[in-house]
Amino acid sequence: YVTAFGEDAAWMGMFNYAKLGFITQPTDYFWGPFNYRSEKEIGNQHKMNVYQCVGSREVYRVLLEYIAKFCTTMSQSNIPFFGFFWGSSLSHDYLNKPKLGDEHYANFFRKLKQNGILSNTVLIFISDHGIRWGGIRATFQGRMEERLPFLFMALPSEYRENHALAYSNLRRNTRRLITPFDLHETIKDLLDPYALTPTLIHCREQIRQDNNARGYSLFELIPNTRTCSSASIASHWCTCQESTKIDSNSSVALRAVTFAIDYINQKLNGYAECATLALAEIHNVHEHSTKEHIVDGKPYHLDYTVVFETVPGNGVFEATIRKYVKVDPITSYFNVTGTISRINLYGTQSLCMTEFHLKLYCYCI
User: Fold this and answer.
1) pLDDT, tens digit, for every residue of 229-285?
2) Order of strands, edge to edge, in the sheet holding 81-86?
């Protein structure tokens, strides 16, 4: 396969933001240097994190044109290809801006189909998360969107007809709980998609169920009994629970928030350039239920999602704290599930911090 990789806003790309990037060119075609240079030389409309334009053209449209040219060139030359492309400039900074790209994305996909590229190419269209800050993020809808990125797949019609079970499972899995681990297994299958016979699919399904596998290929039928726990989704990112808002001044709320702040400060321990954070306000607290029965006399746990603000810096954080309870004698302790999210912008507050994962928490002093 001829390979290609490209993303706009390359300075904050998945391999570049607070990272070292590539020492050698990672793929046959690599768009990154062009993007970096063009944004530096003729980039404009940089109001938040990304350049909206290079010269008179919107950055995301330049990337779409590059992808279309790459696919067309490889297809016309009968060269097998794999491309991984990521666009941030259209959607990263502004909640409502993605709608401005609807027509251009539709034309892009339409052109791929009209040129016959999709007759022998698998197309996967994904996002990684919803917008992570601003007013929308403080709402229930915003919380759900952050945790539920979209995933679309298009398979060639000939493959759908000749591998009916694989295609049927793919469609049925649109109503199942899936994760990026499943997408990873699916992409591995695409290395040899013609090997997916019904016998192989059924055999692998049984093996994965017996081993409680973390990832399924989307060409296999994912069990409809799958839970966040069995799919290795931390409670903080799970959207399958029922929740009840509780008093922010309750004892358990105060203990959970205090534990979360102590957890952050422990992460920052040893970084003298970062302030020690203290509680300013508890915004809200929700108790979650997964409808799993609590057996009398057995240890159990309860999850609490807490949204709180700290000083200095007025950072707003969201954490899911798990309370473990032992019944005889009654004792309890807390733990953080997943990661603690920063849901407002930290901007220049963490310029002194070079550790990527700690930029969310550090207030430079």
Assistant:
1) 889 898 889 888 888 999 999 999 999 999 999 999 999 999 999 999 999 999 999
2) 29-30, 2-7, 81-86
pLDDT at 106: 97
User: Which of 317, 306, 319 is closest to 344 using CA atoms?
Assistant: 317
| Domains, in order of start, for the chain | 1-121 (no CATH), 164-233 (no CATH), 242-364 (3.10.450.10)
Tell me how far CA of residue 296 lies from CA of 38, 136, 353, in angstroms: 65, 41, 48
Distance CA(280)–CA(277), nearest Å, equals 9
SS3 at position 271: coil
Q: What 3-state DSSP class applies to 349?
A: coil
What was the pLDDT predicted at 329? 65
- pLDDT score recorded for residue 251: 93
Residue 3 parent element (H or E): strand 2-7
